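EI: anyone free to look at a 217-residue chain?
SC: sure, send it
EI:
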Amino acid sequence: MQAKVPETVKAEDLVHKRHSRFYFADGNTIFLVDGVLYNIHRYFLQRDSPVFRDLFSLPERGCGEGSTDQSPVCLEGTRSIDMERFLSILYPPRIGHYDLQTTEEWTSVLELAYKWQFDSVCELAADKLSHVASLVDQVILGRRYGLEKMLLDARVRLCEREAPISLDEGRRLGLDECIVIGEVRQKARANLFATAAMKFDEWDIRMLQKAFQALDS
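SC: here you go
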């Protein structure tokens, strides 16, 4: 059995580095993610994530795992940078204020929130991405994570806009998506006298949803 590290041990002397922001002195569960130690509060994880509730309910979790730097809970397949971004949502610098701004940062949060079933964090990340991500990114993320509202809104806006799908956008969206968008745009514009200011109404949106049924099934 491994001996516990004395309280006076220096973080730099440990095999794994403690995170400078998310290793709390009063934390009660230590995680190892991508070579970095995080000491956080189990309460938030158990309250909001069925994945973590199940994890902590396993019998083997009662044998000291997560209680010391030498026996952390290992989260395989997770990058430290993604963990850091995710925890910045659970521990914001101020209530309701977040220091994430880019599509990449909020996608990190969305990925882990989806993986661990933090529904409220998924909703937050989706809302932020709807403002900062490109329409193509929103379509891709909407399909990947089952975000129906984001997916529908982005597809509508791609069909409404005057500019056609660019070559780069087409490569990222995929052939099938581009074909359906092109067909919907053509049908919608055929019903308008002026094509420059196209705005979808309820009938157009229903037509779009029907057109994508086969692709989304």
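EI: The beta strands are 17-23, 29-33, 36-40, 73-74.
SC: 👍
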